[in-house]
Amino acid sequence: MGDAARKVELFEQLARVGKALGSGKRLELLDLLAQGSRSVADLAAVAGLGLTTASAHLQTLKQAGLVATRREGTTIRYRLAGADVAALYLQLRTVAAAHVPDVDVARTRYLGTAGGEDTEQVGREELLRRAEAGEVVVLDVRPESEFAAGHIPGAVSIPITELPERLAELPRDAEVVAYCRGAYCVFAHDAVRLLTAAGRRAARLSEGMLEWRLADQPVATAS
């Protein structure tokens, strides 16, 4: 028979990962880091946290082995410890959506009308087919730093905050397919609503960059 104390120790070590994931803000930080490495200051600003609080959350994630760091001059940049961490986050999200009804309620409130179902969507394979045929303009509406860290090849970068003033940069007669961070990112929904209101043909990728990477689809980076 195994040693009971050692068994307890084993499960306690496994629980460190679960405990690190037990915070909505830490999950949000993982969601942001899935787009690319970031500084503490950048993460704090985007997540709406103070520097001290953001640092504490990141240390918890680092102690659980979920994130790693590297130094660039005087700046410490955080990144996911591996693609398996992104996959774990995605699986957690999938399980929560399947078994916690409140997740769908919150998703609907966040993404807008009918949970974003008011905007047309296309799947990954359909996007690839139409992009290769030159039938659509692929539009990345994430911040420029996230686009630079990795984007769908051939995509045009116009952050959602700049889209109203830069509509003229998109061909008027072309259909636009917008995408952002992931299936729970509101930027692509907002982009489609804005484009449609302006009389443009537009749809959104049903997922986002998180799912695109995990599906081993091609990713381009800014040179």
UniProtKB/TrEMBL annotation:
Gene3D superfamilies xref list: Rhodanese-like domain (3.40.250.10), Winged helix-like DNA-binding domain superfamily/Winged helix DNA-binding domain (1.10.10.10)
Transcription found in the keyword field: yes
Name the UniProt record assigns to this protein: Metalloregulator ArsR/SmtB family transcription factor
Pfam short name (any one): Rhodanese
Domain Rhodanese: 132-221
SMART domains reported in the protein's UniProt record: HTH_ARSR, RHOD
Classification via PANTHER family: ARSENICAL RESISTANCE OPERON REPRESSOR ARSR-RELATED, HTH-TYPE TRANSCRIPTIONAL REGULATOR KMTR
UniProt xrefs under NCBIfam families: HTH_metalloreg
Start and end residues of each HTH arsR-type domain: 6-100
Keywords: DNA-binding, Transcription, Transcription regulation
